[in-house]
Structure formats: structure tokens, C-alpha cells
Design brief:
The complex is a heterodimer of chains A (about 400) and B (about 375).
Chain A (H helix, E strand, L loop, with lengths): L4 H13 L15 E11 L2 H4 L20 E8 L18 E8 L2 H9 L5 E3 L5 E5 H6 L2 H9 L8 E5 L3 H5 L9 H14 L8 H9 L6 E8 L3 E11 L2 E5 L2 H11 L7 E5 L6 E18 L2 E17 L9 H28 L7 H8 L1 H8 L2 H7 L4 E12 L6
Parallel strand pairs in A: 1-4, 1-5, 5-6, 6-7, 12-13
Antiparallel strand pairs in A: 1-2, 2-3, 7-8, 8-9, 10-11, 11-12
Chain B lengths: L8 H12 L7 H9 L3 H25 L5 H9 L1 H34 L5 H15 L4 H26 L17 H13 L7 H4 L9 H32 L5 H8 L11 H30 L6 H6 L1 H8 L5 H42 L3
Classes of the chains: A alpha/beta (about 400), B mainly alpha (about 375).
Chain lengths: ~400, ~375
């Protein structure tokens, strides 16, 4: 049959290649996996706790008490219903499936979730994790382990704290985007791109959480009406526990102290000598943080240079026609910003939450002091309320828009 | 020595670069940070200097014996039998090094990317690739390395460049943290152990067009690969901070996972990075595998190394399967790496000293009668 040895050899080696045709072990069709797009974590209520079956443990032999059980709401993409481009006609079917499960830990809940979904759960497209305020105040460290260990999770996924239950966000139906979780994730990403929030993603949260001289922060969202979400402030943490939130304008102030260059917030500044005010919006800032020891006590000096612009004046009685009045507005704006900064720092000192990362400056610039007196994160959190600080703000208004008066 | 002497200095440099850059890039920041926290770049730098010292000794030895490799000239320097015994050590060490590299590769792939694929398959595929390529002569060997070097260097540089957007220079300070000098010294040894692939220079020198340029080639080789390693350490530490790095097995991979190309072209770079890293691992494996069989050939004075290529594969595979799990594997890698410095740095240094003494005595003996 075979003409010569050579042909036989080729045929045999081709036979060896046949098993490779089936692809590799990890091949998985896209419609056969359950792409989890978003996760919401809530505290499980009394009756929800009873719903748990013995999936990852038998009986009561686990160290986590039932009171700390969590309810995870997952948003899973339905294959074929995710619109691929913006031009596609919107169908009436919901593009996502929302499933609720309970568990003692995040992985426990994931195992329970898998038990309810036919396709294999895939977390590679997870864009956002919403923690309810209750959970965040209770501590987030217990979720970190699973999220770090799992290679599918992206470090660039967003992590946010919600005022309402996180489950509510999973069921939200925003008009601007067909897929609710993508809208949520864009909310965080785009707002930090236009200067409404400092860069924030889960990897950064972990980095800040593990480093010794700073405490993490997260965006704080709230639902307004039924379909709108508002960035309502910044949740600040002491260690892994949320201890408070700021109001939205204070986010801008926080960004100034932390040294995020992009400005985005505007504030009313009263014009000196009048009752009316103008709206001054920060365009960019430059921050210099200096740390020193004063009589052996840590001291921080923050110097911030603002570049602002006048967006609007409140009434016609204000004359914005000469540079002298701009100078006055500049000083007034510096003064009020300075006050706000001092207030915010004092506020975080009260809750021992060094979100500004002053501790990192001490660790980096005064290593002798740090090694002798601080060394650990816990110790720094004790020292932080005691530090003294001075703030210098220097505003410049260079632009007033297209109007001459 | 049937092969024509065709390897240019640049080729020798590229062989060194692509041999040195290997599996080690992934855990390197972890090793460095464990040893020195914020002084991780400093630890890396000292490690590079130590590795460079070893490499220069080897290159210098090779230049004194331009026709021979360490297997053959060691027999001239310290005697036939002693030289052979030491050569067996060297060969065994590289056998182990090859298998550990293959195993580390398998471990990363199985944990990070192909989670269902058996570990054995990824390891065997890699070893098979290396052993098939090893059937070529040394010139083809150098072409393969030369071809892959740009592909190894460029993506790493791209990842580093794009990632620096999120860097926080505070994490790099204080540059010298003198808390734990012993730990730093151990870290230095671990880092310089990642450069052990540079031993390959001793095999290349006899085939170089101008062996007296070996020192130049090794200087550039260690400068580029060491510079890249240092850059990786600086970038990962500046982005994650020392405390976070301690929590991650492969900070470099994590760096690629966090980095996005601006404009949403690619939201994460780890796929590109991993594809390249497979190449880097292949070239490293290829070199140590080639060195092992080439040295065996010289030790037993065989004419050809080709048949050895498949013969040692089962041994390498068996050794690769020995570590029980990933933690065990890294313990072994660090231990073997540090112990291996005895072979890759101390042994050549010892040879060089004896060689000097011998030539000095010879000169004296020559001088006397006249």
C-alpha cells in the first residue's frame, strides 16, 4: 500500500497529530460560560441565612458564625443578548441575569452560585464589585483573599461602596447603557477621568491597604430615584473597615491633598465685600507635601497650588472687569479651600484614617523616625490623630471664559 | 570541534541576554522585596554585580583558553580526574536547573492561564521543543537566540513604560533600608542566582570568531539583561509598594495584568506579556539544555551531541516532577540557586587562581635556565 518508507513515516507522524485537533484542555465555548459582570455583596438577613444548603461544608463545622454570612448578588451576561455595537436595535429582553446566593465567604458564595447556574462561572469579565455600607463597615479584608488568589479577577475592576443594599444596584436599569454593570463601572472610570474622583480600582485599594502608612478609600455611591446613581462622596477606611464618608465636594479637597493633578470640582466663593458669589472651578493643582519632626513630633506641611477658572457669577451686581477683583477672589478662594482642607484632615484624624498617605511620606523620608517609633500600620494609625499640620493654598485664576464683565 | 567558528560578538551578546532573561523575571520582585523591602532595587543591583563578577571570571578564563570549554580546560588546569569530577557536578547542576526552569514554567501556566491543562503536558511540551531544537549545531543555536531577543525585550519595556503612569515614587524610598543585612545578603545571592544561565558563555567562546572579545560580549549581555531586571523591580515596587508585592507570587505578571494601553486598545497586557514570556522561557531552557548535552559530549569525548538530546529528556522530566507543590518548588529553587553559585562563581574563580599560579610558575621555570 505504501510506496516507500518515507510515506509511511509521514502518515504515522500525521496520525500522532490527530489528538491535537480537539484543542486543548482549557478550550471553552463562550456561550457555555457564565460571564459574571458584577457582584454585589450584602449582609445576609435572618431568613436569607436559612436558605443556605450544605454545599461547601457539612453541618456547622466552620469557624465563621452565621451572623456574618453574606448575600452575593451576581449579574451574569446572557449569551447573545449583549449588544456588540452601539447601532444595534435595542431588544426588550434583559441582557443580564441576576442571581442571589448566600454564603459564609465570597468563595463559599461562588460555589453556591455555581450550584445554581448550568454554565461554568467565569470571573474574567468582572468589572465592578459593590459592597454595601454595612459590609464595608464590618471589614473588607475577608474578601481580599479570594479576589487576589483567583487568577481570573482583574486588578483593574472597580470596587465601590453603596449606601443602599448592593443587590439594588444589580437590578438597576440605567437608560444610558444597556448593560447595567457596564454603566456602573463606567461611572467610576469616567468620573475619575474627568477629575471627579481620584483613580480607584481594586488593585489600588489593595496596594494602599497593604502599605503601612496609609488607609484606603473608595467611591461611595447612592441611588437617586430608580435609575440614576450619584457619586455621593468618598468612603474612608481605618484598616479594612469603613469608618466614614465625605460629602462630594470634599472629594475635590481630598484629591488636592493627595496630589491628584486633575481638578474637576467647582465651588461658590463669596466675593469679598459683597453678598454674592462666583463659581470657581479647579482646573489643575500641584501639591507638595513636606514632613518634618517638630520637637520629636511628626508635622506635615502641605502646599497646594491651584489653577482655577471662573465658570459663572451669581448676579449682575458683581463686576468682573478688572484684575484686582480677581486677585481678591483668589485670596478668598485660597482661604476657604484652606479651611475645608483643615476640616477634612481633622475629620479623618478623628477616625484614625490616614487616607492622604502622610504616613508613607514619613516612612519614605524619615526612615530613622519610622523605624524607631512606628514600624507597623497599627502604630501609625495610633500616631496619625496626633500629628500636627499646616496648609498653604495658593490659587491662581487665569481664565474667566468668553465674557468680559 | 567540527563546527565552523562563526559566532560574532553581537550574537554572543544576544545569546547571553536571551539566556539570562527567563522564568526568573516573574518572581524576581518578590525575591528582592522579601530581602530588602524598599531597598529591593539596591538588592537587585548588588545581585547583578555579583553575577557580573562571575561572568567576567568565566569570560576571562575562556579567553585564556580560546579553544576549549570549562569541561575541557578544567582538565588542563587541575588535572584530568579532578577536572572530570567537577565537570560532572557542573553538568548535574545544569540538568537540575533545566528541570526547575521547566517546572516553574509549568507552574505559572497551570496556575495563571491554562487551569485545566495538566502540569505534565506543559512541561513535556516545553522540554520536547528544547530537545528537538538542541539537535542543531551551535550556529543555529545562536541564530535562534539572536532572532528572539528583540521579541523578548520590547514587550517588557512596553509594559514597564505604560505602567509607570500609576507609579508612586514614595514606595521606592528609603533606597537603603539597613534593617536586615543578612536577609539582604541572602536576597542578593538569590537574585544573582537568576543570572546563572550566563554560564553558557564558556560554551560559546570556542565557537566565536574572535574569542578575545568575549569580555566585551559578556559586559553588554549583563548590562542589558541586568538593566531590564532592575527596571522591572523598580517599576513593580513603585506601583505596588513593597507590602503588596509580598502578597503576590508573580509581581511582574500582576504588573502586566494591571497595565492598560491608553485609549482602551488593550485593557490588560498580560496576554502579550505571557506570549513573550513563553519565548523567554524557551530560550533559557534551550540554553541550559544545550549546555548540558554539549558538556556531556565533551566529557565523554563523543563526536556528536544529537543523540544525547532525547536521551536525557526523561531525566529532566523526572527531576521537574519532583517538587510537590508551588511553595515547595520555590523553596528548592532558592536553595539550589544559592548553592549553585558555588559552581557558577566559586568554581571558575578557583580555576582562574590555579591557572594564574600555573602560568606564573611556568614563567619562572622558563626564566631560570636563561
Amino acid at each position: 500500500m505504501w510506496q516507500n518508507q518515507r510515506e509511511l513515516k509521514v502518515a504515522i507522524s500525521l496520525l500522532f497529530l490527530i489528538p491535537l485537533l480537539s484543542g486543548c484542555w482549557d478550550s471553552q465555548e463562550i456561550e457555555q460560560r457564565a460571564n459574571v459582570l458584577a457582584l454585589g455583596v450584602d449582609k445576609a438577613s435572618e431568613e436569607e441565612r436559612k436558605k443556605e444548603d450544605e454545599i461547601s461544608h457539612l453541618g456547622k463545622r466552620i469557624p465563621i458564625p452565621d451572623e456574618e454570612m453574606i448575600k452575593v448578588t451576581a449579574q451574569i451576561a446572557v449569551p447573545g443578548r449583549i449588544p456588540l455595537g452601539p447601532q444595534q436595535p435595542g431588544g426588550s429582553e434583559k441582557p443580564v441575569l441576576v442571581v442571589e446566593v448566600v454564603g459564609h465567604t465570597l468563595e463559599d458564595a461562588m460555589l453556591n452560585l455555581q450550584q445554581e447556574v448550568a454554565d461554568e462561572i467565569f470571573l474574567g469579565h468582572l468589572r465592578i464589585i459593590v459592597l454595601s455600607e454595612e459590609i464595608a463597615r464590618h471589614g473588607t479584608a475577608r474578601f481580599n483573599d479570594f479576589l487576589r488568589r483567583n487568577p481570573e479577577i482583574r486588578r483593574t475592576a472597580a470596587l465601590v461602596v453603596s449606601k443602599e443594599s448592593a443587590a439594588k444596584y444589580m437590578n438597576l436599569d440605567p437608560e444610558l447603557e444597556r448593560i447595567p454593570s457596564l454603566y456602573l463601572a463606567d461611572m467610576v472610570d469616567n468620573l475619575s477621568a474627568i477629575g471627579k474622583f481620584p483613580p480607584s480600582f481594586i488593585g489600588l485599594f489593595w496596594t494602599i491597604y497593604s502599605s503601612k502608612g496609609q488607609d484606603p478609600y473608595l467611591p461611595y455611591l447612592t441611588v437617586i430615584e430608580k435609575t440614576t446613581i450619584q457619586l455621593n462622596g468618598l468612603a474612608y477606611f481605618h484598616g479594612d473597615k469603613m469608618v466614614g464618608k465625605t460629602n462630594p465636594l470634599e472629594i475635590g479637597i481630598f484629591m488636592a491633598v493627595r496630589g491628584v493633578g486633575r481638578g474637576g470640582y467647582g465651588a461658590f466663593i463669596q466675593v469679598p465685600g459683597k453678598d454674592e458669589s462666583v463659581l470657581v472651578r479647579a482646573v489643575s493643582r500641584k501639591t507638595r507635601t513636606k514632613v518634618t519632626l517638630r520637637n520629636g513630633k511628626p508635622h506635615v506641611s502641605v502646599k497646594i497650588q491651584y489653577e482655577s477658572e471662573i465658570d459663572e457669577k451669581e448676579s449682575a451686581s458683581i463686576e468682573l472687569s478688572d484684575s484686582a477683583i480677581l486677585k481678591k477672589i483668589e485670596t478668598e478662594s485660597s482661604k476657604s479651600t484652606k479651611k475645608a482642607i483643615e476640616k477634612l484632615i481633622a475629620k479623618t484624624q478623628k477616625s484614625k484614617s490616614d487616607i492622604f498617605g502622610f504616613g508613607e511620606h514619613f516612612r519614605a523620608k524619615l526612615p530613622h523616625y519610622w523605624n524607631r517609633n512606628v514600624k507597623t500600620k497599627e502604630k501609625w494609625d495610633e500616631i496619625y490623630p496626633e500629628i500636627t499640620f499646616d496648609v498653604t493654598v495658593d490659587s491662581h485664576i487665569h481664565r474667566v471664559g468668553m465674557k468680559s464683565k | 570541534m567540527g563546527d565552523p567558528k562563526e559566532i560574532t560578538t553581537i550574537q554572543a551578546t544576544t545569546i547571553l541576554i536571551s539566556t539570562i532573561i527567563g522564568v526568573g523575571v516573574l518572581p524576581l520582585p518578590l525575591f528582592a522585596v522579601r530581602a530588602g523591602e524598599t531597598s529591593a532595587p539596591f538588592v537587585t543591583l548588588t545581585g547583578i554585580f555579583l553575577a557580573a563578577l562571575g561572568l567576567f571570571i568565566l569570560a576571562y578564563l575562556g579567553m585564556r583558553h580560546p579553544q576549549k570549554t570549562i569541561i575541557t580546560y578544567s582538565q588542563d588546569i587541575i588535572g584530568k580526574w579532578l577536572g572530570r569530577i567537577f565537570s560532572i557536578f557542573v553538568i548535574c547542576f545544569f540538568l537540575v536547573l533545566t528541570s526547575l526552569a521547566a517546572r516553574e514554567f509549568g507552574a505559572v501556566v497551570v496556575t495563571g492561564v491554562l487551569r485545566e491543562t495538566p502540569l505534565e503536558v506543559t512541561v513535556i511540551v516545553m522540554l520536547l521543543l528544547a530537545s528537538i531544537s538542541c539537535r542543531n549545531n551551535i550556529n543555529v543555536f545562536s541564530y535562534i537566540h539572536n532572532f528572539y531577543v528583540p521579541m523578548i525585550l520590547a514587550p517588557v519595556l512596553i509594559v514597564v513604560a505604560f505602567s509607570l503612569k500609576n507609579a508612586n515614587p514614595l514606595y521606592l524610598r528609603p533606597v537603603f533600608l539597613g534593617n536586615d543585612l543578612r536577609g539582604m545578603a541572602a536576597g542578593m545571592l538569590t537574585v544573582s542566582a537568576l543570572f546563572q544561565g550566563s554560564f553558557i558563555i564558556t560554551m560559546i567562546i570556542p565557537s566565536m570568531k574572535s574569542p578575545n572579545k568575549a569580555l566585551k560580549a559578556s559586559f553588554w549581555g549583563i548590562l542589558i539583561s541586568g538593566g531590564l531586571y532592575l527596571l522591572i523591580v523598580i517599576a513593580t515596587v513603585a506601583i505596588f509598594g513593597p507590602e503588596e508585592i509580598k502578597q503576590i507570587f508573580w509581581p511582574t505578571l500582576e504588573l502586566a495584568r494591571t497595565t492598560a494601553v491608553p485609549g482602551n486598545i488593550l485593557q490588560r497586557l498580560d496576554i502579550i506579556f505571557l506570549a513573550v514570556w513563553v519565548l523567554a522561557v524557551f530560550t533559557t531552557l534551550f540554553s541550559s539544555y544545550y549546555f548540558t548535552i554539549h558538556s556531556l559530549k565533551e566529557l565523554f569525548q563523543l563526536k556528536d551531541h544529537k543523540m544525547l538530546s532525547y536521551f536525557i529528556m526523561p531525566f529532566v522530566f523526572f527531576l521537574a516532577m519532583l517538587p510537590q507543590n508551588i511553595l515547595h518548588m520555590y523553596e528548592i529553587i532558592q536553595y539550589i540557586g544559592r548553592a549553585g553559585l558555588l559552581i557558577t562563581i566559586m568554581y571558575p574563580a578557583f580555576l582562574l587562581i590555579i591557572d594564574f599560579l600555573r602560568s606564573w610558575r611556568r614563567k619562572k621555570n622558563v626564566a631560570k635556565p636563561t
